[in-house]
Amino acid sequence: MTIMKNWINTKDQMPKSGQLVFAFGVNEYQKNRTIRACYAERFTIQDDNEYEAAEYCEEKDEYYLMEGWYESNECEDVNWFVQFPITHWMPLPEPPKP
Questions:
Q1: How many helices (H) and strands (E) does the chain have?
Q2: How many CA atoms lie within 13 A of 7 on its CB side?
Q3: Nearest 5°: CA angle at 35, between 42 and 46?
């Protein structure tokens, strides 16, 4: 049996940039949301500038995701920028063993 770890407050610690985690926040309708997401630190995750969330780095001559949280959609290669504040996160559990 996999035991879930405790939620980590984003004020105390952030996940590694690009690491998929469970993220928790309250949306604009005051509804609790738990999503699978990753945090992008500034200039760490390259982007093809196809979406509005791209930021250009002159030093590296590359586009990157803007700093922030991105919801991970398993069915698409697109990660959507999270519009509500993420307050807590926890690592994903290990998958079950066959």
A1: 0, 8
A2: 12
A3: 25
27 Cβ neighbours under 8 A, 6+ residues apart: 33, 83, 84
Query: What are phi and psi for residue 68, nearest 5 degrees?
Result: 150, -175
Task: Give the start-to-end residue ranges of the domains of the chain.
Answer: 8-91
Q: What is the pLDDT along the chain (98 residues), one digit of tens a residue?
A: 445 569 999 999 999 999 999 999 999 999 999 999 999 999 998 887 666 668 889 999 999 989 999 998 877 766 789 999 999 999 999 889 98
Cα 79 from Cα 47, distance rounded (Å): 11
Q: In the numeric block, which tokens belong to residue 46?
A: 């390259």
Specify the pTM: 0.83
The answer to whether 68 and 17 are in contact (CB under 8 A) is: no
